[in-house]
Amino acid sequence: MEIYLPIAGMSINVFLILGVGGLVGFLSGLFGVGGGFLLTPLMMMIGIPPAVAAASDSNQIVAAASSGAFAHWRLGNVDFKMGLVILAGGIFGGTIGVQLVKILRAMGNFEFVMTVVYVLMLGLVGGAMFVESWRTIRRSKSATAEAAVAPVSESGLTRLFNKMPLKMNFHRSGLNTSAIFPFTIGTIVGIMAAILGVGGGFIMVPAMIYIIGMPTIAAIGTDLFQIVLTSANVTLQQAIVNHTVDLLLALILLSGSTIGAQFGAVAGKRLKGEQIRILLAIIVLALTVKLFLDLVLTPSDLVSLAPAKGGGH
Amino acid sequence: MKRTLNLLLACCLVCCWGASALAVTPEAQPKVITSASKNVVEIGLSYSGDKIFFFGVNPVSGADVVIKLTAEKEEIVKLSVKGKFGPLWMSVKQYEVTGSPFIYKIHASKPLDQIISKETAQKWELGYPAVESKIKMNLIRGEAAPEDADTVWKGLLKIKERANLYNIVEDPARLEIAEGKLFKHYFRFPPAATEGRYQVESFCFLKGELVGYGKDVIEIKKVGLEHWLTQTSQNQPVFFGIMAVFIAVAVGLLVGVIFGKGGHH
């Protein structure tokens, strides 16, 4: 069944879009990521103009993330206080990041450096996560006694922030630390997201788990909650500035992804923290390999439609 | 008196003929009478391109026929060009291409180079070389290189051909001319052919000279929901954006509630 998308200016098979949306929604609910990394390139592959793909994608992420966040909230996995503090940091970091991009662009070779940094960082995060969760899985198999091991023991960083002012009790995350801590993490991820032009879920979730020390499932629920707000902002900006949100495309995508997100959240509940982490690590590593191959292999098309930089901030 | 008047009239006619023969507009040629199976195409929810049939009468029996479909609007295309940066492939420059038709299709009764000379093809903008010479490239990012013009043009052509927006068919089976006189063919408007006015021009050539010309205009327009969504996104972007976010949150929560109730909690 074909349907014509008014803003994208093309017709498309509804079931194809529903299926793709469902898959991305599942990943979103399971891992707490937006899924833009997967969906935007897929949409472009189908032939949707890059600007429309990015904008409509952020619109559907609002739906998938609210569906996923709602499911996680019912399961008690959303730390609203933590989410808002990180979000504030993210907006602050995003603003700094946009300015930094301008300065770095003027210096030249910016894209090259950033692409390489991005691939290296993704590889590092994915690799470290893989090793850590693999060890945890093996340990829990061999020694049944020490089951509840936190991902990281209290680091010097955690101790340092414990002494800082603005102490808050993050009940859901089981943490009692200074608000400056998550705010700083939010800022750093916000700067990176702006510079790299990605949503940042892939950096945010591991940062919440390993640096802030949140339980895996709470990190996922909380990240989904803050993705709802950030992607809503991006959608609004894209609609106002670029007129590129294709509501019809977003509607079909979100019909699939909201349902997928529910299944993802349920699947997340059945899996152990380390099992989710190892799966996320595998996806991050696969993405790293894909980006690396893009850089090394001779492209089939030297000339392509210029992608629009997504994101209003 | 009557004779003088006739003479005067004849003189006038000759003058007119001479003047129009000097002008380079194809309209100066004897008109090719054409007809399209429809002149208005409406884009509704289920639009997935359209096929329009065209008929025409060749003014000179046995003349070759070339038909060109173009969009009235010209577009600005931004293209990224990849290149090697050390050992890595990266997008190294960006070009803005102007003057390229949004759609460009040619049907000819035999290969173009057997019908007309290069100069004639250039004059009536028939064939890819004519399009290539018309477009302008403007470097936005990166450093220009001499081979860029060729690379960018070939890249653009590939993108357009893949979307079925550009093609050239030089096949007598595709453009039938019955007894050298009545020709018929069809153009397939791809789904990517969006709102706007399109022109279908019929050129008749005899021994490389233009002997007839005709033009049909096809209008494609959005109707119903498609029209409303497009208009709203353009004219009331703030309302449109808020609506998009609101719908997304509402659907997300709704699905959450439905699953929550039906689930195992």
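qc> The first strand of chain B starts at residue 33 and ends at 36.
qc> done
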